[in-house]
Amino acid sequence: SDGKGGGGWGDGGGVEAPEQLGAYNASPASLVREQLSGLTHSDAPSNNISIANNFGSKKFPQAIIIGVKKGGTRALLEFLRIHPDVRAVGAEPHFFDRFYDKGLEWYRNLMPRTLEGQITMEKTPSYFITKEAPRRVFSMSRHTKLIVVVRDPVTRAVSDYTQTLSKSPGLPSFQNLAFRNATTGLIDTSWSAVRIGIYAKHLENWLRFFPLSRFLFVSGERLVTDPAGEMGRVQDFLGLKRVVTDKHFYFNQTKGFPCLKKPEGSSRPRCLGKSKGRPHPQIPSEVLLRLRDFYRPFNLKFYQMTGHNFGWD
Fold first, then answer.
1. Neighbouring-strand partners of residue 250
2. Measuring CA to CA, how many Å separate 255 from each of 44, 71, 222?
3. Do 141 and 119 touch, CB atoms closer than 8 A?
4. What are phi and psi of 229, to 5 degrees?
5. How confident is the model at residue 87 (pLDDT cuts 50, 70, 90)?
6. Model confidence pLDDT, tens digit, residues 44-79
7. Catalytic residue list
8. What radius of gyration do the chain's Cα atoms show?
9. Using an 8 Å Cβ cutoff, are 150 and 68 in contact?
10. What is annotated as the active site (predicted)?
11. Binding-site entries
12. Annotated binding site for 3'-phosphoadenylyl sulfate, which residues?
């Protein structure tokens, strides 16, 4: 998983803190609705039968962030959770790749309760590269909206390596893992850090089940340079009012990416945790150039497939 639920944002990426609930400029009704939907059964007045459903019901996600690891999926999910009409699972469920045998009811039970007009979401970036995932999601619902956060595959690979290195310091060098043969410069596509970035190949697998119109491709780079613009596209795609706008973000110079301004009543702004924005190791430029050459044809094919030039070349 990419960070086991994201490690950060002041709430461990898990249950939402109350101050996050009714978004910044949400209408009073949706604010109340949000706060109510956060109540647990034990908080509910026992004399009112209608409250016994815990406010709302658990539904299968209408939208899933299916990829990609180290692309910006945690940031996207946390930005989306500001929206009063988005309810999301904090941790990554990994249902369609690891726990599919537990069954759909188990999966639905992981979901937060939603009210009329709210959408249920989850994110598990490894779905994008999982062979069986498209068929499994399709058999849950062919109408599921799929969001893929993509980022320059070379920087994505380095970021992936950096994360693994922080967990296993004895790792071989990046170039040792990236090349099957250093003399010939043959890239080792079996290394997951390399394989994940061959986006065209993974997308082909998904397009056997879902039409292109079901997908939104979010630029991981633009999520950093223009979070509000990219969030506008995401909210439109999800059929949501544009609630999350530039007034929610400020750029954190130290981390090098946008953070959420502090919601009223909370003590501090929310930034992604220590596991995000780590400094990358120095990698020889000829290694990166070779990797760039390797990815170029796949990138071009991906631009053609999606009708969107991400400008990585």
1. 259
2. 41, 16, 16
3. no
4. -65, -45
5. very high
6. 444 444 444 568 999 999 999 999 999 999 999 999
7. 70
8. 20
9. yes
10. 70 (for sulfotransferase activity)
11. 70-74, 151, 159, 276-280
12. 70-74, 151, 159, 276-280
